[in-house]
Design a protein that fits this description.
The protein is mainly α. 48% of the residues lie in helices and 6% in strands. It has two domains: 10-144, no CATH class; 149-255, no CATH class. The strands form two sheets. It has a two-stranded antiparallel ribbon. The N and C termini lie far apart (56 Å).
């Protein structure tokens, strides 16, 4: 640490990892307005924040698998916060949003663009509704950032047409609802087909089309255009948070109509 610099606090690191999750890998730099905003919020320089984001990158197994090392001087506390976050996707994303709201002197509702008119007035139902909405927003930002707002099947890059889909459904695995390794950036048509088990992605990241679609001869032209041309092709992989093989295995075995 350079003379005059103060050690990063745990709260500051949680805010940094919150931002790390939401930014595409290529935007972890000091000129990014989001990096500058966080730097102003916690009283640090944009360069310091950007370097801390790159420290987190050095701990990211998905980047390591691609040969990207990041900065090599992550602190013990950096590693602790990284591990805590990645081992508790169920709670820490929401807690990090609450922390962000406190630093912003705002509320999680305002920061996540949740309209008051859409919420119950008060009580437990309101709290639960807010938490679900904030978590869904965090998951979407994290998954789309990992895939650089690109559909993993078609390559479509219009974020408004993309869904942060779950490999293991939201209703089945509560502990991994917010785990980006359980997410795919995918457009609406293929998300519906994936949910229905009409397509799947194998543990080696290849697309498989169900026999149910293969047998629809009357729609042969449409089937070829929208589905069959992708059969056995590799998906476009994210830069971070690779789809976990165990989740893909589940979908292949339990959801896919072979």
């Amino acid at each position: 640490m350079k003379q005059g610099q103060s050690l990063w606090t745990k709260d500051e690191l949680i805010l940094a990892i919150n931002l790390y999750c939401k930014l595409p890998f290529g935007k972890l730099h000091r000129g990014n307005p989001d990096v500058i905003h966080l730097a102003n919020l916690i009283g640090r320089t944009p360069s310091s924040v950007a370097y801390k984001l790159v420290n987190f990158a050095s701990l990211d197994p998905s980047l390591q698998a691609r040969g990207i090392k990041g900065a090599q001087n992550a602190s013990k506390l950096d590693k602790e916060v990284w591990n805590e976050f990645n081992q508790n996707w169920r709670e820490l994303p929401y807690e990090s949003e609450r922390l962000r709201a406190r630093f912003e002197s705002s509320t999680v509702e305002v920061l996540n663009y949740i309209e008051e008119a859409d919420l119950p007035k008060e009580g437990k139902v309101r709290e639960q509704t807010v938490k679900v909405r904030v978590n869904q927003n965090f998951f979407r930002h994290t998954v789309l950032a990992a895939y650089n707002s690109t559909c993993c099947i078609t390559g479509l890059q219009t974020s408004s047409l993309l869904i942060a889909g779950h490999i293991v459904p939201w209703s089945i695995d509560e502990g991994n609802r917010l785990n980006p390794h359980n997410g795919l950036a995918i457009n609406a048509l293929y998300d519906k087909a994936f949910e229905a088990g009409l397509i799947t992605i194998t543990p080696d990241y290849k697309i498989k089309v169900s026999s149910t679609l293969r047998d629809q001869k009357k729609q042969e032209g449409a089937m070829q255009e929208y589905f069959m041309k992708f059969d056995n092709k590799e998906i476009i992989l994210p830069s971070r948070f690779l789809p976990a093989r165990e989740f893909l295995e589940y979908h292949n075995k339990e959801r896919f109509i072979s």
